[in-house]
Please model this.
Amino acid sequence: EVQLLESGGGLVQPGGSLRLSCAASGFTFSSYAMSWVRQAPGKGLEWVSAISGSGGSTYYADSVKGRFTISRDNSKNTLYLQMNSLRAEDTAVYYCAKDLGDIVVVPAAYFDYWGQGTLVTVSS
Amino acid sequence: QSALTQPASVSGSPGQSITISCTGTSSDVGSYNLVSWYQQHPGKAPKLMIYEGSKRPSGVSNRFSGSKSGNTASLTISGLQAEDEADYYCCSYAGSSTLGVVFGGGTKLTVL
Model:
């Protein structure tokens, strides 16, 4: 059974940093692209970042480019999101999501499994 | 990366069919067959309903179907059931200028 378990969320002050983790199990982690998708309270879904199965290719939304870094440790079956220079508008539930396959040319964003989400609140 | 445009809400009676549109541009929806659709019930994680424009993952009812014409993708739900009431989001590759992914703003489906 595929399981994705996010952790690392919490309350952080504007300008601060936070690292999210997503522990994966039930599939061959290195064979699949992974993404982070966020949802602000009462709002819609927003794609944040994607990474290929090998970790060699990464993609970011314009809203987080230069501030967030996606990475993965395939030996630990874990996905990460390092978030720096956090802003109030980054407040959201952050989901990790598994893609149906790996990124061949461009990210297709077919997310067949999602974690339960972890809440990040940026406030003073 | 501008969000794809969806109607804020749609409604239908049990047994009826409804269609949710998702309008992008010639740079995203219009140029690539990389559209997916997600269903989200309150307090739950999203669920993949359609990928590659019209394909259904295993386990998704054949009452859900997807299509595309020009810059607009559509999700059709036939034989509406009470449990279909949820938020629906379209998603697409955003194009070579951004190399990213973009979601629609979401559509609230109400089953009357």
In short: Residues 5 and 23 of chain A are 5 Å apart (CA to CA). Chain A has a mean pLDDT of 95.
